[in-house]
Design brief:
Elements lengths: L3 H15 L23 H15 L5 H10 L7 H12 L1
């Protein structure tokens, strides 16, 4: 089972490789927000989801994750939320 810290490290590496033109001065942490801090757009989350499926070698229910964000009216995604989702599905 991967720890939250390992998953966050995986996620940070995928973000760095997938979006090399993004400038973010702070450390990528569970509190980092995808839109406000990393400058991502909604489509970027889809691209990130595809890359993460490749890293973990399985299809992940990102549609469910995104629908949950939409249903609760979230205007941003904390990487901690994404880590919790990934830990639940890749453990």
């Amino acid at each position: 089972m991967r720890s939250p810290d390992q998953i966050l490290a995986d996620l940070a590496e995928v973000v760095r490789r997938t979006f090399p033109d993004r400038e973010y001065a702070g450390p990528v942490s569970a509190d980092t927000r995808a839109f406000a801090d990393l400058g991502m757009a909604s489509i970027d989350l889809i691209v990130l989801a595809e890359k993460l499926e490749g890293v973990y070698g399985r299809r992940l229910p990102f549609g469910q994750f995104l629908a949950g964000l939409r249903d609760r009216g979230a205007d941003d995604v904390g990487l901690g939320e994404l880590v919790a989702f990934l830990q639940h599905h890749v453990a």
